[in-house]
Every structure is written in C-alpha cells, then in structure tokens.
Automatic annotation (TrEMBL), chains A, B:
Pfam family, one: polyprenyl_synt
Enzymatic class: transferase
Protein name: Polyprenyl synthetase family protein
Family membership: Belongs to the FPP/GGPP synthase family.
Keyword list, A-Z: Isoprene biosynthesis, Magnesium, Metal-binding, Transferase
Gene3D superfamilies reported for this sequence: Farnesyl Diphosphate Synthase
A GO term, aspect molecular function: transferase activity
InterPro entries: Isoprenoid_synthase_dom_sf, Polyprenyl_synt, Polyprenyl_synt_CS, Prenyl_diphosphate_synthase
Co-factor(s): Mg(2+)
EC number(s) reported in the record: 2.5.1.-
Amino acid sequence: MTQMLPFAAWMGSVQAEVEDALASLLPAPHLVPAKLHEAMRYTVLGGGKRVRPLLVYASGALFDADRAAMARAACALEMIHAYSLVHDDMPCMDDDDLRRGKPTVHVAYDEATALLVGDALQAQAFQTLADSDTLAPARLVPMLRMLAQAAGSGGMCGGQAIDLDSVGIALNLAQLERMHQLKTGALLRAAVLLGAMTGTELTDAQRDALGAYSSAVGLAFQVVDDILDATADSATLGKTAGKDAAGNKPTYVSILGLAASQALAQQLRRDAHDALAPFGEQALRLRELADLIVQRKA
Amino acid sequence: MTQMLPFAAWMGSVQAEVEDALASLLPAPHLVPAKLHEAMRYTVLGGGKRVRPLLVYASGALFDADRAAMARAACALEMIHAYSLVHDDMPCMDDDDLRRGKPTVHVAYDEATALLVGDALQAQAFQTLADSDTLAPARLVPMLRMLAQAAGSGGMCGGQAIDLDSVGIALNLAQLERMHQLKTGALLRAAVLLGAMTGTELTDAQRDALGAYSSAVGLAFQVVDDILDATADSATLGKTAGKDAAGNKPTYVSILGLAASQALAQQLRRDAHDALAPFGEQALRLRELADLIVQRKA
C-alpha cells in the first residue's frame, strides 16, 4: 500500500510521522527541569535526515510491522543518535559549533547542559522502547538488548573510542572499516533489525540477508560521509566541512583517494541491493534507501 | 538464613558478590577498544560503598528473590551510578580530581575518555539488566522501564539539571528536597523497588511501604552527604570536601544549619524504620541500611 507512493512522498510521510512521535515522546518543555527538556527538544526535533527511522520503517514494512511499534523503535534509535551527536560535538571531542545548520547544544546552551542532554536522551531512548504498549514483553526484551548492544562499548561508543585513539595514526583499510562498523554501522544495523523485529517472526536466512544489507549500507554511509567532508561546503552539510583532514583523521578519501572512494560507494550500493534479493519486490524501500544514502549531497 | 549473619558480614558478602558480578559483566579489559574497557573497569571496580546494590539485596531478601537476578539489578544500578559520578566530576560540571580516593577518570585518562566511559556504562547498565536469563520478559520490561525512568530527565539527570541551575540561588527547603528526590533519591528508590521486583509479586501496600522507606532513606542520604561535606576532610571522604560551600551550592547545612541537619537525619532514620513496620522482623537489613546511611562517616 505505502509501496505505491513515490519514494520522496513515502520518505516525507515517515519523517513527519517520526517528528510527531518524537515531539510527543520527549518530555514537554514546560515540565521541570524546563531548561533540560527544552534543550533535549532543541537537539532532537526539527532536523536530521532521519536515516535510522527510515530504515526501521522500510524494514518493518517487509514484516507487516505495526506502525506504533515502528515509531517507538525509530524514536529510540533517533534519541541515541541525537545524544551521540551532542556529546561528539563537545569541546573535549570534536569541538564543533554547527550541527544540522544550527548552533550545537554546548554553544546554544552550555557544556554542562550538553552533557546532561546527551545522558538524559540515552535514558529516554530506553524508556521510549520499554514503554511500548503494542509489543509483547517477549518481543521487547531482545529489542532492548539489541539497542543497548548497538549503543555501548561493543557498538557506537566503542567505535567512538577507536576513532579517538586513531587520530594521527595511519589506519589500514580493515582497521578503518572495523571502526566504522562500530561507530555508525552498529546503530544502522540495529535500525534495520529492530524494524524487522517489530513485525512477524524473522527466519535466520532473512536475518542474515538484512545483516548483509546493513553492513553494506553502513559502510556506504561512512564512505559517502568522508567524500562529502572532503568535497562539500559547511552550508550544504549543515555542519563544519573539512574537519577530518584538519583533524588529521584517517578517512576513506585519505586512504583510497577520492575516485576509488566513489567507486567503493557504488560497489557497496550494489552489494546492498544484492543482499535484498531474497525479498524480491517487497524490499523496494530498502533498495531506495541504499540509493539515497550513496547519492545524498549532505 | 542470611538474616542470621551480623550486619557487617552480610554487607561484606553482598559487596564481594557484586564486585565479582561487576567484574564478569563489564567487558574484559583486553577486548577492543581496550582503553575504553580498561577505563570502564577503573571507574566501576574496586571502590564505592555499593549502597544501591545493598538496598537491592536487602529489599530482594523480603521477597525471596533469586540471587542471580538481584546481582543483575544491583550491577545495572551501580553502572548508572558510576557513570553519573564520572560525568559529574568532569571539568564542565563539578571539576573534581578525586573520587573514591583515586584520580577521577578525566584526570587518570582524559576528558574525551571520561565522556565515553559514562556513555558506554549507561548502555552497559541496560544491557546488563536486559541480558538477565533468570527473569521472565514480563518481569524484566517493567524493571527496565523503572531503571530508565530513574536515570533520565524525570530522575537522576533531571536532578542534576536542577542542581546546575541552582548554583548561587537561594533555594528553600522544599526546592532543595525536590532536587535531591530526583538527583539521588530516584536511583535509591529504584534500588529498593528493583530488588523487590526480582522476587515474588508485591502488593500495592508493600510497594507503598517501600516507597516511603526509600523517600526517607534517599533524603537522609543527602542530608548526611551535606553534613559530611561541611565537616569531614577529603582524605576521609575519598573526594574533595567543602565543595558545596566553595561552589556556593545550597545544602541542608547552609539552609538549616548543622545541628538542625543532624536532627533531620535522625528523624528521617526513624521515618525509614516506621515505614518498614508492615514487614516486621524480615526487614532487618533495610533497617540496618537506614542506620548505616545516617551514621556513616564517609
């Protein structure tokens, strides 16, 4: 049914639905402590490509997922993602002033508030998923476990730590890939699998296919990020461009060069499509998202 | 059975059991990213009074709780507590160099690592509880929900935010109490209730009694903290003494004076005992913990 919509219209409808869900799931801005709640909403609402929510909905559609359940999973992932950006932008990390075209949280508020916003958003993510009233507990517990695993030291935080330790060090391609599999890949993979888990039971083969798709899309996402950091301007990106080279960080572009990085992104896009073969036509949205991730300009 | 042990021996056995459980639940220090995992273990292991775990075990004992389940809940709470200390000690918050008699994480490592240690520990807390293999999903989901609620902007992070906003402001007693109910009270209350929830089903009356006990103990904990900050030295506390007065922070001592604060702590201890009346002799450990919290010297 939603398969009939043109991709842009489908994407817009999911983004609008997720924005509404986030606005209602985040604590109201007048609730005490008001400044913290305002800053949490400033961080999460009104911006972002919502890539993780789109993956949840695209994957969930393959398994007849309930929309309310997909919204919970999508919002939980987006809260984790948003908190990681806030902490990543802080002076002791990347020290960035601009995010999604707006001043970063520690600039708009202060560092202590940015720290607390991130901490509170992480808790809010787990609460958002645990509070689901449409998913049975036996379904929710593995989803909460997957979210925690993807967010923690075996996932996103672990990737951040490797990233920190690799500044000024000549990583090889395998090490760079491993870092990104954790830093951004873990949460993207969780988005695809959580979307599927909100629907009917997955077979092992389906889980493997989605895992292969996620790996390809996760890496493609990062390769394109590196290409954009090297080629686009800050106004287009909505964040500071050229940071990687300035920070002496290893990237796909610095290791492979620009042309080979662009070829790699295209190869990963084909890998993502190939992984979806078992799902046939039904996987249209996931294929379109792989295309979007590779072809995006910001 | 454990009721027969003298209090100090019971406390020692719980502390040892929790230390072992934490050591096995935290990622091994050789796993990549090794520095992050080492720093997580530096933060959590080998220190702390383990007040929240003690409350879990004392409360769980009233409801025939399974020890493995209590260990999960205790470790999850202790990870949340430990992460909050790491972030609270950072330069943008309290800027403290000493914690549990050791250099704080941002001093022993660096600020970026301290930020990530806290973030990863929060995820690890939810993973620790969600990974329980002795608690049914229908039991786990409300526990995860309670943990998230106690940790987030409606609990600990919210209390931190109010604390930040109250520096240099003359809070009245009710406002100070509200701040502490969130900042430390929410997690102590969660400890008491999560301990109980690992065992047999609670009646509403039992839940109310435990809630009243938690409120009294939570406030007593903070009143005594304020008394110790004003009267003890840094070597005894294992953290910097006199920070509140130096930071112009409202405390029970600054509002009520020392003598009235001491009287209040004693009154709260009696309130905690009174709240336990419905449990009779069985609540010995919870009574002893209320005494410990009020009579502690560090």
